[in-house]
Amino acid sequence: MASQGPLYIGFDLSTQQLKGLVVASDLKVVNIAKFDFDVDSKGFDVKKGVLTNEAEHEVFAPVAMWLQALDNVLQQLKDQGLDFSLVQGVSGAGQQHGSVYWNGQAEDLLKGLDKGKSLEEQLTAALSYPYSPNWQDASTQKECDEFDALLGDEEKLAQVTGSKAHHRFTGPQILRFQRKHPEEYQKTSRISLVSSFLASVLLGQVAPFDISDVCGMNLWDMQENCWNEDLVKFCAGKYGADELKRKLGDVPHDGGLHLGKIHNYFVERYGFHPKCTILPSTGDNPSTILALPLRPLDAMVSLGTSTTFLMSTPEYKPDPSTHFFNHPTTPGLYMFMLCYKNGGLAREQVRDAINDKIGSLKGSNSWDNFDRVMLETAVAGQKTDTDPMKMGLYFPRPEIVPNLRNGEWHFNYCPKKKELQETVDGWDRPLDDARAIVESQMLSLRLRSKDLVHSSKDGVPAQPRRVYLVGGGSRNRAIAKVAGEVLGGVEGVYSLDVGENACALGAAYKAVWAIERSPGQTFEDLIGKRWKEDEFIEKIADGYQPAAFDKYGVAVEGFEMMEKQVLQQESAR
Ligand code: XUL
Asked: Which residue's C-alpha comes closest to atom 1 of ligand 1?
């Protein structure tokens, strides 16, 4: 039966698709529609949602394609019978760091949207540059070096902005943009992030940046919660800081701020209620932590093509290898993030090698052999306490955590002597790689999150309370078991079975909270009261196992030494 109560839309404008997901006040999903950029877009020759200029390591997306997608997704929801007049609030999530450049006509064109024409027809002319640099862009090494050096070094930049300079971060991207495209930069009246671009179109005026997503720019001072003057001035170059600040706009601190009512275009074309409220859209990672009432000490691990580790924490402990963002809804909390390039592909390569070796599943995508071999292998590949521990690094793609070229390295580690040896002596490859690769990915997470976890029970060492797995790998119970053995998880390891929808769901929940909260009520409190744990999550592994957890505490020391050694070797090459 169609829902009669208030409804909320969460959009997810990600790299390869736009999704619109509708929930009711009780958080149940009632509609969902998708637009796949490669398959569904007309007139854009994108691959995996983007265009590339390999010579300059540029990756970018045509903004007009996103406008086409927004009309299409809304039309699909209408065709599904969604009663738009019940929608009280709309929020969204955008791929992080991407920037959109509006020209001097943008405000008028946004305001004057006419229901008789598409968004693409009307707003393409509002852009001073037709493309949005994508988070996979790697064209800004020079600008990153300059950003890191400006405040002293990468530690200092991380201390101030929550992250060292990264190619994809918007500050280095804007710096390169103003140098490479001076005319377009001068014609730019406002700059949006992908998230605030989405809110702008819905609102019919340029929307401010979101308080969490703004931290993905290397321009925001996390502790002062304002623009860092030195960084903005440097980024603006000869055009001046005041001018750039005008382009960036003011940033409200409330992630649930009511930005305004939806533009009449959407009322007339799709049947939205004129009072429907637009809320700030945030980044896709901050939105993902809103897909459940994540408590401090809970961790989310996304096991997709890449690996992402997310925590909500009251502590700000920046480091060049990690990221801190303002929490998207809750002042006083931060989102901690580790963002790797490698993950699923590396595990699949080991799986395929094992299937080839065993023969029974040659050429298949089955995980049966991998899982069995991994669970039969002892912790750290150590059959007896006197054997060395086996550990490795598996990077089919260049990695960012740590910053290393693609490659594979194998080591034996003797914990008593704290000795490392680069060797495959004693390894039965590729079988021993099954446990070693999953351990390697999890040990890296344990190493880098160790300062954020605490003991939540007497006598139990510091570790996450719960580990939630999302993404493709989250359905694999064997991987979940090893993840729990390495990372811990006092209450266990859970899969959040929302498929690829976590991010859109988080955006829709944010809209529910922003509209229905009582004064001062936190997101965690409101969503926590409505969230039905037994329907939304499943416990898939026990988590903390004292003996294994202690052994991995020893292994993590060897792992850290191994990374340092490989980094040294590589820089000497
Ligand atoms: C995070 C990042 C990616 C994108 C993906 O820093 O760059 O996770 O947000 O859309």
From this structure: 96
